[in-house]
Amino acid sequence: MTGATPIGIHDLRVATGAHVVELSELADTQGIDPNKFLVGLGQQQFSMPAHDEDIVTMAAAATAPLIEKHGLDGIRTIFFATESGVDQSKSAGAFLHALLGLPTGIRVVELKQACYGATAGLQAAIGLIARDPRERVLVIASDVARYDLDSAGEPTQGAGAVAMLISADPALIEIEAPAGIHTTDIDDFWRPNDRSTALVDGKLSIQAYLASLTGSFDDYRARGGAEADTLASVLMHQPFTKMAAKGIKALSAHTGVELPDITPTMEYNRRMGNSYTASIFVALVSLLDADAELAGRRIGFYSYGSGSIGEFFSGIVQPGYRELRAAEDVPAMLAAREPLAIADYRELHETTEFASDRDIVLPVTTSAPFRLAGVTGGARDYTATAV
Ligand code: CAA
To answer: Are the beta carbons of 283 and 238 closer than 8 angstroms?
Structure first.
């Protein structure tokens, strides 16, 4: 337990892009057996933002209902985690701050370390709240995973955002104090500043993910973390869901404990694809929505960001969590995405990025509550769709 003041995730919301691509169709057009993607990678679809959506609009769509429900009292910090930032200097959270009409007394910072950034935000938020339990912190993870067309990474693309309200006496998950960390400098996956798509050494990235998993778990145990046999489930970063399956198998072998089946953590990521920083928290929502017997149970979290940092930590699911989760319907959101034919997906993939040296007005495509309206004088213009 975290001591006198339990701190953790009070509530959270998910958003994704307007479009969906079927991996069986992608496989067909590439002359690949669809089971390579469906079974071999454990992925069924991936989300793709419309031309007038990006990490800011998805983040705003996830955050607005949280603020509407819980208000702004005590919120003085927003950590916006992403590895697909829209500006080299200005935090994506600054755009979000304006879009949601937030007050000036909130510090807004962008955090980056590949898919790990939101976990750093969560731990930093806990530190701020431990100092003053009246504070609450918004931790937002939002990403668009993009690889080159026809590359091995292409079927592991995706898009999504999770907004989390971190507070004392959380209603959803109390985060326990011990955390295990494993950091190395490795070129397994990265994106140079002049590229909009990631570079990856796929096989090395899988090895690095697994080495960091066992390394961070050992550090978690050494720091007082719980025995493996007390874990009711383990949430893994899910670049593709088969990676999480490989992870749980490796951790079972490493600990000598037959860890639980983690299939219930995978349902939403199978359909959203890789949402990088958001992925592990999408797995959390998937688990909470699938399993009604978790109150009082401990779940493990393995957060991995290439480059690389792995962190293993744990949390206790709070009584009443099911009532909170009933407030949102992720399957309905996923079902509402507009399917893209492969030719249309390929065209959108190639035209998503804009140069900043000319003004652009984007046509309205998305039906999401917030949109990217265009670029003026090199700066992005965002708007609420109702406006
Ligand atoms: N039916 C069923 N399974 C099939 C099959 C078929 N017809 N054909 C192939 N498979 C299986 C393969 O056996 C393999 O499974 P195993 O790994 O369990 O053996 C699986 O499908 C994938 O096949 P390949 O290894 O041949 O696939 P690939 O080399 O073309 O690409 C990949 C796989 C390297 C993961 C690639 O998609 C990639 O580079 N993805 C991006 C990088 C990534 O996600 N790395 C994960 C760790 S890094 C991380 O977690 C950070 C992050 O978010 C990026």
So the answer is: yes
Tens of pLDDT, residue by residue over 304-353, are: 999 999 999 999 999 999 998 877 899 999 999 999 999 999 999 998 87
Structure-block tokens of residue 216: 């961070």
Tens of pLDDT, residue by residue over 43-77, are 999 999 999 999 999 999 999 999 999 999 999 99
Residue 209 CA to ligand 1 center (angstroms) comes to 13
Q: Name the pTM for this structure.
A: 0.98
CB 248 within 8 A of CB 299: no
Alpha helices in the chain (DSSP H): 23-30, 34-35, 55-70, 92-99, 117-131, 202-222, 241-255, 267-272, 279-290, 321-325, 330-335, 342-351
Q: What number of helices (H) and strands (E) belong to the chain? A: 12, 17
Pocket test for ligand 1, best of 33, 190, 200 (most atoms within 8 A of CB): 200
Tokens matching residue 301: 């979290």
What distance in angstroms lies between residue 173's CA and the mean position of ligand 1's atoms? 32
Determine how many CB atoms are found less than 10 A away from the CB of residue 285. Answer: 23
Main-chain phi, psi angles of 277, to 5 degrees = -60, -30
Contact yes or no for 183/299 (Cβ under 8 A): no
Give the β-pairing of 199-200 and 7-15. Answer: unpaired
| Span 137-160, pLDDT tens digits | 999 999 999 999 999 999 999 999
